Every structure is written in structure tokens, then in C-alpha cells.
Amino acid sequence: MSIAKYIGRTIVIVYMDKKERISKRTIRVIRIDAGTVYAFDTSCNGPRRFAVERILAAQPVIVHAS
């Protein structure tokens, strides 16, 4: 999965942690380095790291103009 195209964007990911728990998170991708996504996680309101191989799905957040 190519997450690099989402650098600087807000996306929703489906993520499986080391204990195989699955969660859905909204993140803003800051950078990707050595198989790690560095992001701002809106659910915990802070910086987080995610292993690329544990991201099961990713979709950009679509902002509708009013």
C-alpha cells in the first residue's frame, strides 16, 4: 500500500496493533521513514507512529465545501 501519496493530507486508516486489535483512526500524515508513518492522530489529539505493514486500509478524508 502506498501511503506516501498521503503525506500532508488527512486520512482514515484501519490499523492492526501488535496484539492484533483493529482500530479505525483519522490521522494527518506528516512523514514516512523506514516503514514508519509519523502522523498527528486526531482521536488522541497528538503525534503517533504507525508501522506501514500494520495499516490494513487507507482512505483520504473528503472535505465538502459549503
Short description:
With 66 residues, this protein is mainly beta.
Average pLDDT figure: 94
Question: Could you tell me the radius of gyration in angstroms?
Answer: 11 Å
What percentage of amino acids are in beta strands? Answer: over 45%
Q: What's the number of extended β-strand segments?
A: 5
Helical percentage: under 10%
Q: Biggest sheet, strands in spatial order?
A: 4-3-2-1-5
Backbone structural class: mainly beta
Shape: globular
Low-confidence stretches: none
How would a crystallographer describe the biggest sheet? 5 strands, antiparallel
Count of helical stretches: 0
Order of helices and strands: EEEEE
Report how far apart the termini are.
32 Å
